Amino acid sequence: MKRFYYLVMVIVFSNNIYSQSWAPINSFEKYNYKISNSDTIACTIFVDSIRVIGSDSLLYLNTVYDKCDTCTCNNQPYTTAYSSGHSQFLKKVIKRDNNNVFTFSDTVNFYLQPYALLNTTWVFDSINNINAVVVNIGEQIIFGIVDSIKTIILSTGDTICLSKQFGIIQFPVILSNDQYYRLVGIEGSNLGLITPKANDLFNYPVGSIFQYKGGYGDPGISFYYIYQMTVLENLSQADTIKYRVQKIGKRYENPYTMESTGYFSYFDTITILNNSQNYLNSYTNNLISLSPIYYGANICCFPSPNEFKTLTSFVDSSGVLIRTTNNVIIQQYEISSTYIQFLSDNFDRYRISFVPGLGQVSFDYFKFEQGWNEYLQGYIINGDTTGNIYNSALLANISTISNNENFEFILDSKTNNLEIMTSSILHLSIYDVLGKLVYNNSINNKSEIVNLSFLKSGIYLIVLFDKNNRHTIKYLK
C-alpha cells in the first residue's frame, strides 16, 4: 500500500504543477516514444535550449547520430559513417509565435495549432500541400490521469493526438504508413516507461550474491570460467556508485565435465561514475564513445566498431526495461520477448545488456574467429534466490584458494571442516556479512581442524592471521 500512495502523490503533483495546457512539449521534461507496438524506446525528445526573439519563443530540441550517406569514409571496407546533428520526428526547432501557432523546423517544416477549436482547419505542410483539421475533443486516461485529448486528422489520412497535460501523444512515423510514435513515458515527472539510469541498474543490496559464467576462444586458446561475486560493502557517494566485492570461482577447459584447471579468489572494487558523462545515463540513439576517434568536426568514421556504441532500451516479457549497448555499425535488429539482437554489417558483434538491480547481465563479443561472452546465471538478493547458485565451497569442490603460495588450507563443504596446514597461522576469526564476530580463537598446532557446523546458513568471512599477513576466505553455508 505504501507504493500505491506514493504513485498517487506523484500523479497529483504532476497534474497540478506540470500541466502543459495543450503545449506540444514542455521544456522541463524528457519524452520517451515507442513506434506502435514495438518493445524498443525509439527516441527520447527534450529541449536543449531556449531563445526568445521578439514575441517568438524558439525551443531547440536534442539531436542524435545517424548514418551519413555522403561521407567519404563509406568507401572503406566494413565501415559505416555516422554524423551528428540529425533531428528526430519533431524536427530541430519549435517556434511558438504570439498567435500560438507552433512551427516545427528542419529541412521541411510543419505547423500545429494545439489551441484550435473543433473543426478548425489549417495548412500542416505547405510544400507537400497537406492540411489538418481538429475532428474530436474528448477525454482519455493518460498515465492514470483523465485528460482532455484533441484528435487532428491530416489530409493524408494520418492522425495526430494531443494531450492537454502531456503534449503530443501520437504522431505519424511516415505519412500514409499507419505507423505511429506513441508517448510511453516522461522522465522528469517519473510517469510511464522511464529509462533506468546507472544508479537504478547498479543498485546492489549488501550481501547480494551474483553468479556468472563465461568463456573465451580463438584458434590458439580457449577456456571457460564460473565465479560468484558477493557484495560486501556499499561505498557509494553522490556522484559515484561504489561497492567492495569478493569474487571466487574456477577456470576450466572442458565445458562438459567442468573439471577445474585453476581456482581464484580476490577482493575487488566496482566504481561507476554517476554523472552525465556515463553512457548508462544517456538516451537512445546517442553516440557512446568508449575510445574517441574523430575524423572531422562532427563526422565519426568507425573502422574499429567495438570502439563506439549506441544505447537502446527495450522491455522484456516480464515488463523489465533493459538497457543494451551495441555497435553503431548496425543494419538491422531483431527483438524477441526476452532479448534484443543487433546485426552489424561487418564481422564484429558486440553487446552488453543491463537490468535494473542486477547490473550487467550479459556480455557478448565476436570478431571473426575470436569470441568472448559472460552472462549472469543466478543471484541471491535479500535472501531470495533466482536462477542457478552454487555453494561457494562446492563451486571449487574442495577449495585450496589463497593469495599466498605458502598458505595452505582445505575447506570441505561435505564435512564443514576447515583444515589449516600452515604452522605460521596464529589466530582465526569468523565474521558474518554484517561484520559481527561469531568465532574467535588462537591456533597452536601445525595442523588445525575447525568444524564449521555451528554456523547458521549465510555468508561468512573467515580471517586467518600470521605474523605478517591476513588471509581472508569467503564461506557460504
State the end-to-end CA separation.
35 Å
Low-confidence stretches: 1-18, 289-309, 326-347, 396-405
Q: What is the rounded Rg?
A: 29 Å
**Helical residues, percent:** under 10%
Q: What is the overall pLDDT average?
A: 75
How would you summarize the topology of this molecule?
Elements: H1 2-17, E1 30-35, E2 41-53, E3 56-61, E4 64-67, E5 81-86, E6 93-96, E7 102-105, E8 110-112, E9 121-125, E10 130-142, E11 145-154, E12 159-163, E13 167-172, E14 180-186, E15 191-192, H2 198-201, E16 209-217, E17 222-234, E18 240-252, E19 260-273, E20 287-289, E21 299-301, E22 308-315, E23 321-327, E24 332-335, E25 340-343, E26 348-355, E27 359-367, E28 370-381, E29 384-387, H3 392-395, E30 398-399, E31 409-412, E32 417-420, E33 427-432, E34 437-442, E35 448-451, E36 459-465, E37 470-476
Antiparallel strand pairs: 1-2, 1-14, 2-3, 3-6, 4-5, 5-21, 6-7, 7-8, 9-10, 10-11, 11-12, 12-13, 13-14, 14-15, 16-17, 16-28, 17-18, 18-19, 20-22, 22-23, 23-26, 24-25, 26-27, 27-28, 28-29, 30-31, 31-32, 32-35, 33-34, 33-36, 36-37
